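R.M. (postdoc): so does anyone remember the format we settled on? I'll just put the structure tokens first.
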């Protein structure tokens, strides 16, 4: 079983961003998770394509770009041009999810869809075959450092069953409140890509922390 570790740069120190990226790469990061927030879909602002493009020059790792924005269909082309390898948008943010998933794939990126804590997994029934990645939010999106919502374990199990039945190559990712204390549990529930922010970058040595996380999955 392969599990991808995806440190979230939202929690990194941007005054030392090149150093912090190098640290998590040395620790075995598979993806770099990039949280894009617009202050409308979620109550926070982060970065746009320009920052992603600048960061792209610092790393060859998979850029896992999570769009927490309204009207994501207006911006996916720009994020792909900036270097995003996986582009994930929210089911709740667009009425045309299937069309957008197809469009993202046509750009040469992997297409992901995310669901907030209040959105049932069953809402993905009609688009699951068009997904390369499903992201289950285990916190309310918008801020780092939140506590894991326990109901997410059951949602991961539900998503795992749907993926295994209908699209086994689809990656199941979880984001929010994951650290050493529950890492094994989310993997046992079916997650195969783990986003971690403050539990990695909030430690004195992100590289060592990521290696410890990997060891917990051995």
């Amino acid at each position: 079983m392969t599990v991808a570790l995806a440190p979230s740069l939202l929690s990194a120190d941007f005054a030392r961003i090149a150093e912090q990226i190098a640290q998590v790469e040395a620790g075995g990061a598979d993806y770099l998770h990039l949280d894009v927030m617009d202050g409308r879909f979620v109550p926070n602002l982060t970065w746009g394509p320009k920052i992603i493009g600048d960061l792209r020059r610092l790393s060859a790792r998979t850029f896992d770009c999570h769009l927490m924005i309204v009207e994501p269909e207006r911006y996916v082309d720009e994020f792909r041009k900036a270097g995003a390898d996986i582009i994930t948008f929210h089911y709740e943010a667009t009425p045309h999810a299937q069309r957008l998933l197809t469009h993202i794939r046509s750009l040469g990126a992997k297409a992901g869809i995310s669901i907030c804590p209040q959105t049932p997994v069953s809402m993905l029934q009609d688009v699951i075959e068009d997904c390369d990645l499903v992201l289950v939010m285990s916190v309310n999106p918008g801020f780092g450092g939140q506590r894991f919502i326990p109901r997410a374990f059951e949602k991961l199990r539900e998503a795992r069953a749907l993926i295994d039945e209908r699209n086994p190559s689809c990656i199941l990712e979880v984001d929010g409140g994951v650290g050493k204390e529950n890492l094994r549990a989310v993997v046992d529930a079916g997650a195969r890509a783990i986003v971690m922010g403050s539990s990695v970058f909030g430690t004195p040595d992100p590289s060592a922390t990521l290696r410890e996380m990997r060891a917990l999955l051995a």
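R.M.: ...and that's the designed sequence above, right after the tokens. Also worth knowing: The chain has a mean pLDDT of 96. The first helix runs from residue 17 to 26.
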